[in-house]
């Protein structure tokens, strides 16, 4: 797909099913992610791939975290939480790995990891692979971070759900760029 067309038309795929994309297709996504802008080439990211029955282990980890916060949760609510990672055949956990650097503060490294996720989403869209960037409270929960093996210098920037899009893409409408892009100092 033409690059600008991809950039202008990408949408998320909230409903996903099917199989995990081929290794070759995934490699195309990974290469795109790793071309994100990255001050001082710190590569401040890493990604965990969760598929098949391992998604159930991730669901169990979510449930463990939720029970810690709300021990009164019903089994129905817990089952709902456990099933979240089953919403797609593959979940890519995107992690920002912050390194100490005199010129590259933490925010720049988190932004880089976020840009890597965006590149991955764009590559997925251009490859006709459905994708959706999610976080939710589980992304910021200590128990989830520990269970996924994050170190103290790491944070989850997203759970990227990947699979085959179910249903039609949502309709998008162009935004008025003048609302967000202004000439300075003429207009405030
Ligand atoms: C950091 C980040 C976290 C997000 N987390 C969620 C989420 O947990 N649940 C959700 O429905 N959408 C989440 N979104 C938004 C969706 O990924 C998506 O961008 C939004 O629904 C708009 O759809 P579009 O990408 O098709 O324009 C998140 C987006 C970002 C950038």
Note down, in words, how this protein is organized.
The protein is an alpha+beta fold. The chain has a single domain, classed as NADH Oxidase. Helices cover 37% and strands 18% of the residues. It has 6 helices and 5 strands. Strands 1, 2, 3, 4 and 5 form a 5-stranded antiparallel β-sheet that branches. α2 packs antiparallel against α5 and α3 packs across α4. The longest helix is centred in the middle third of the chain and has 21 residues. The structure holds flavin mononucleotide.
Fold blueprint:
Elements: H1 3-9, E1 16-17, H2 23-33, E2 45-51, H3 54-69, H4 75-82, E3 90-97, H5 106-126, E4 130-134, H6 142-147, E5 154-165
Antiparallel strand pairs: 1-5, 2-3, 3-5, 4-5
Helix pairs in contact: 2-5, 3-4
Bound molecules: flavin mononucleotide.
Flavin mononucleotide binds next to strand 4.
